[in-house]
Amino acid sequence: MLEDIPRFHLANLPTPLHRLSHLEDSLGLNEIWIKRDDLTGLAFGGNKTRKLEYVLGKAMEENADTLVTVGALQSNHCRQTAAAAAVAGLRCILLLAGEEPDVYEGNLLLDMLLGAELKFFPDDDFHSLSGRLDTIIDTLQDLGLKPHRIPAGAAYPLGSLGYVKAMEEVKLQFDEVGSSPDRIIMASGTAGTIAGMLVGAQLMDIDSEIIAITVMDDVEQHRAKVNNLLVEMQREYDFIPKSTPDFTIDDRFLGEGYSLMSDGVKSSIEMFAKMDAILLDPVYTGRAAMALIRMALAGEIESDEKVLFWHTGGTPSVFTKSSCFMQ
Length: 327
Known about the structure:
Elements: E1 17-19, H1 21-27, E2 31-36, H2 48-61, E3 66-72, H3 76-88, E4 91-97, H4 106-113, E5 117-121, H5 126-130, H6 133-142, E6 147-150, H7 157-177, E7 183-188, H8 192-203, E8 209-214, H9 219-236, E9 248-250, H10 263-276, H11 285-297, E10 306-311, H12 322-325
Parallel strand pairs: 2-10, 3-4, 3-6, 4-5, 7-8, 7-10, 8-9
Antiparallel strand pairs: 1-2
């Protein structure tokens, strides 16, 4: 199955799986587990590292010399792509939606340190810049480069294979500890991670409810995004089940905007840090943490349920919010 697909090893796997004992006590839940994909090991880690192993496998097979991708100014995906390129000895060009700031911080600072070439597009947002990617690839080819195109978030069938594989990993870990989660809660943006998880759950007969806490779309938009990617995966790979898996999308925690941190997210980040020394980010895992906390306090999660919080990384972007935490 996945063994026949080229893969360039980048991540320290398996990532840890452990209990959040103090958070359990505070929320009145018997078991809260955390899957530490913030510890994949590539320049502060994160979920994109798993995806990039398969992306890089393809790029190296094609003798590419340059990785090109797009993202927001504080894109976790762009930071991990820059790191992957450094490990593989490739050039990296990052197309970033927004005005170049006077001071580089968080992921943007790391992009620079990792040697990526940063191109800023102040008149584009995240979505419109993604539409430019093919044209820019054509231009680079005209200049004699061999670029490899990576969609935002590596959210396409090849990238999603990283989380098909991840579900096999977490299944083995839970088998070892003699438990299994009733619910898996994770943040979802470009949908590549959730799509891979859903396929992996089907293949591994994992019957946990998978809950995607969306950070940029409403329920209908995000479901369409996930379902479209699942169809693409089914077309691309014969081993992907043809049925549409069940999953839950929760858009109650979107807040006022993608990059804006609400007081609830701030409090949730502080709670995870002070109770179990888990560092989250203000856009993705902070929102997912707020969802877990509020669902538990509202009784939406029963005390005897076993919950897995999947930490998808993104920690460097919390360093851009120091003024918010100092208030």
